[in-house]
Hints:
Shape: elongated
Mean pLDDT: 74
Distance between the termini: 16 Å
Strand order of the largest sheet: 13-12-16-17-18-15-14
Helix content: 25-40%
Number of helices: 11
Low-confidence stretches: 1-22, 204-217, 417-472
Amino acid sequence: MRRYLRLLCGVALVFPLASAHAEPVSPVVLAQPAVFRLLVFHDSEVDTPASISTDLQLLRDDYNKAVLGGNLAGLTEPEFYWRKLSEHPARYLHPSTARTHQTTRNKADASGSAFAVSEEGILITNAHMVSDDSSELLQDPKYVFGLLQQPFVSEWNHLTLELRGSPAAADTESVTGALLLWYASQSAFAVSYKGVHVVLRYDTPEKSLLSTVPEMPVAVEATTSVLAVGRGWPGKDVAILKIEPGSVTFASHDFAGRTSLERVKDLHLICLPTADSDHVLPGTRVHALGFPGAAIGPEMADSAAYVVNSQPGEIGHPVDMKDGWKAFPLSSAIDHGDSGGPVVDEQGNAIAVNVAGMQGGYNFAVPINLATDLLLTANITPKCSVNAAWEKAVRLYYDKHYTDAANDLERIARQQAGLDWLTTGGLSKVDMQNPQASLQEAFEASKLFLRPKGHEHPGVSAAVLELEAKAASLR
């Protein structure tokens, strides 16, 4: 018979199956709830050429020479023009001396990662995430394209008309990259840091637990303040942030459909323990966690940008830096969006902080001791009282002690600060005939535990009692 049990967000209400041998729990699973995406806000000013003229006669002359020499390589005339432009843009393209100025204020135009090291909302990230130094941003083609998108696309469309066609399909990517680099070299940029928000939670359109409009995904953000900051790469690239609890608001819905705006007062986040990075040996196996921008392409849903990723790798031999500290070479594949994320060892301890960007074939990470030194400077003593209960609940889940895990997760959810169940109905269904998929979904939801103190819904206790009654009937 098909049975259902309603499930409150943030409370893993699951059914007990037959006991089995204990499955090892990955430290990465234990670490993921402590890792957050950062949205970085900047003011930007961009000066671009007001217009660009194309030497069409020179292009035609080169085309005629290629025809006579039999060197067209199967290209049409427009395709030949585009390839020549990408190979020697300065030969054919001439920017005007007149300039166009574009200003953007307080725009979230970059992202990175951070991780909690103290439950009241203390986060570690990279210094360059909160710095006015825009050198790393301007080395990221995606970021540069974002700044130049409007004028560049306009010039591209003009060229398409002028050349009477588009690049060959096989050339489109290389032509776009080459012309974008050239266009950037003809432009001037000024970027200044304005602030950073931390994304505490994201709900997908299919399973939105935040929005009363099901098709609309919702990201819940909080503002942060900078407590201490090092110097951007190649300096000691770490910073300490503090989530401002009063900046976290959420819409609370009751069963009558009434909505009120609530404000979180206290945070109780799951956080990462740290280890002494001075004792980390070359060859140590690790996982680099973060939100990689490179993984987000046009073929992916927007929600993919909010899924924490884990890349395995090893720590290499420490490298001496000019500022008198040692960096960890890191074989894990990371990208710009991973900046500020944790590097955890096989015991789940944070031993370093990602610094995105390939340097001679390797990424680098900043040893965690440099961040703990900053914590001491800011007079911060990390507190992670929620962690032991979280680890116990996770192990119960993997050992298939689902009722005990549900009870522990429900208690943890009441401790966590953040978001209530937040749907008009407030509830979703768990399929009794196919519990494994539902159990996994419930477990994944429980890793987002964000529940404000004092805002527990009485339905939680009733649902737990209903769970226990149904569980007893299955024994």
